[in-house]
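2.7 Reproducibility. Because tokenized structures are sensitive to small changes in the input, we list the exact sequence used for ABC transporter domain-containing protein, including any N-terminal residues retained from the expression construct. No trimming or masking was applied before prediction.
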Amino acid sequence: MADPGPASFSTRANALLRKNLTYQKRNLWSNVRLIMIPFYLCIFLVLIQLLFDTKVNNSADNRCGCDLVDTNGDGIREKVCGIQYSSADQGFFCSIPSPPLWPPLLQIPRPESRDVRDLNDDSCRRTGTCPVTILFTGNNRSLGGTVSGNLLTTSIPANSSDLLRALANNVLGTTAEPDFTNYLDTGIASNLSIYSIQPRCILNASLPFSFGQPPLNFTKELRCVQGLNLWRNISREVNDDIFKGYRKGNPEGKINEIAAAYDLLNTDRNNFNVHIWYNSTYKEDGGSRLIKLVRVPRSVNLVSNAYLQFLLGPGTKMLFEYAKEMPKPETSLRLDIASLIGPLFFTWVILLLFPVILSSLVYEKQQHLRIIMKMHGLGDGPYWMISYAYFLTISVLYVICLMIFGSAIGLKFFRLNDYSIQFAFYFIYVNLQIALAFLVSSLFTKVKTATVAAYIYVFGSGLLGIFLLSFLIEDSSFPRGWIIVMELFPGFSIYRGLYEFAQFAFRGNLRGQDGMKWKDFSDSAMDEVFYIIIVEWFLALIAAYYIDKISSSGKDPLFFLQNPFKKSPLRRPSLQRQGSKVSVEMEKPDVTQEREKVEKLMLQSSLSHAIVCDDLKKVYPGRDGNPPKLAVRGLSLAVPSGECFGMLGPNGAGKTSFINMMTGLLKPTSGTALVQGLDICNDMERVYTSMGVCPQHDLLWETLTGREHLLFYGRLKNLKGSDLDQAVEESLKGVNLFHGGVADKPAGKYSGGMKRRLSVAISLIGNPKVVYMDEPSTGLDPASRKNLWTVIKRAKQNTAIILTTHSMEEAEFLCDRLGIFVDGGLQCIGNPKELKGRYGGSYVLTMTTSSEHEQKVEKLIQDVSPNAKKIYHIAGTQKFELPKEEVRISEVFQAVEKAKSNFTVFAWGLADTTLEDVFIKVARTGQAFNVFS
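Resulting structure tokens (single pass, no recycling of outputs):
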């Protein structure tokens, strides 16, 4: 098969996308269960709303009162509803075809809050007789004085047949806050007094009067309060007085509220131009954000009437007799409790995606699936693009299902608010959530830990939102700036957005109107929430990508400062090794020869070898008082294409550290290595495109089949169409996973040996130029092992393979050359026959007799070979090492025949030196050398 070359960006992205879609298909029921969670929560909210409707909204107390009345005089009583049959609470819901006429009232501060800064003392606050302050300013002080003098009247009305007209001649004020409607004015209906604001008052002057007809009849006490008109030279003084007098505006914390203020500007006889200040804070009812009425009309009428009297004389009056609501039909209580508690549940619903995404990312990290994909050519660009798009698609489908579910079952939270605003809000937040998951995944290495932390974040955000953030939002005294600071926490920003949706839905349902529209965007807090989420998404995405580059790619923390147009050299010349001169001189001739070969190759313009390691070293820093650990000691090695190089060595010799450096998991402490002419220190991304890896532990997706694994990695190697199908089929057959439906079973159901064979097939698919195999036949039965060796031997024809193993049989069958590693250093190198010839200059004689004849056997061997050495002895069985230069095989046979005639020999054998013997001998010699060196 022709070399397909490295896969393009789109090809690798397509491979990952197909793998993710297949993985998602395998987890279909998990996704269905995930999507059903918001459905169940929506059903739960509907049930709560139905229960609330039954017990509260539709209760008798929250409907217009009714009674059985004989309307026709025929003795038949019929049910009749009306305000006359209602209690005070029920009357609010009755129809009002002719709303009552209420006298217009001016909003004035409570006695204890009135401005006393211009008085000599504040003793009036104890008696409740402080005047009501009204400020004036303008360009013409003379005109201003006249207008302010005309503002207030001097009489309290007596009983009159036309009470409204009599009251209209006076300036009436109230400390009661207005309501949302004016069907029942709280200033009249409350137990608070109505004040007649006059220039002068008789002490404790008051006048009772009755107003209205049953059931809306009230007996009120009209009390006199002094109105104090004060002049200020400029409007800035007025603004300063108002601000410092309002609640916490005063540095000393004292309240000195002004009833109203007028700036007459350039008003003269030909121009009437006035600005009116009034306290607008009464229009909002705390956290419910229901807009109340404001008592502004009376302020406008007062200054207009005063100006008319200035122009036309004191006899001119423009009476403001009454304020009246529009006629009202019968209504019922429509409190949408589901909207009020909805933010808690929907915060949980949206944030529930966070643990799902985070656990998926940490799973790939924990199982080393991300790095194995990278080793087979999947770059950071395709991985980020497809993974992000994959999670975004799932998240968008999730929130769309949530909106459809909620609307279909009748939740006002979704139905009343504009769908485009809702979708825009959810869309930008799930983007932030995905970026946060990528960022936070760098903090965890275990899925369980990440999942627990994520669910604590999910439920904690919802609970803190409803029990902390919502109360602070509704507390008008809490600084708005700190609310914004709290919304920087992503869990609070999602809650605040849902809170705004809930408030608009609640008000819209209560008034029979729509919820939030785009025209309400700036009036609510949604604009600041949008800005916060967008900025945080951008910053989180940059931070996540930066940390990923450092952690997974081994980039320098300041890599973004490097010149992107500067190309790194394909390789670098051999470094001066002054510090290793002594160790070089003590190396074995074969190791020295390999080092000299590498030095010559590094000076050539083009490399003829697939892998060249040049004085590669790895030192682990010391910890807990321990000295640094030298894992690889200046390794120099050249492996041409078509050769399988075997690395032998005891555990801890440094083989895995060497493989990890060659595959990009570790950075060399010094030295370098060239793979296909590319430096592993600078060009690892390009090295990955021509590399295959069979790691020591199987790195597989449990739910993907063997065939799907090979299809994915084959696509990463740029195999397409029929070439891909053929390569997958040949790979499955080669590792004996094709027949019996094994290829289409999930890898999680494979045995350990089957997983091992699949890992080998993955490393070889696509004919990579370089393959690293770390103990590939571990856990295989003899038949499967032999079959796997045949596959590897066939694959090495155009590939350079570096293989680590503890099986001498495997090393002898597969490897063209062997290198024995001891304590991080290469002790010898050569093909198996050379090593056995070099280190195996003896025969091994084994003889088993009864215990009483052991001495005779030992004497017999000493006669044949005086320098023979006993290397094994147990229960009558003895092994002897006979130098080849001292004995002939025929002499050994003759000695054994002689022994048989003298005593019983149960078994005996003569063997040449095995590779295992060579390994043991070299390992012991190397360890002893490193101990004494």
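The two ends are 51 Å apart (CA to CA).
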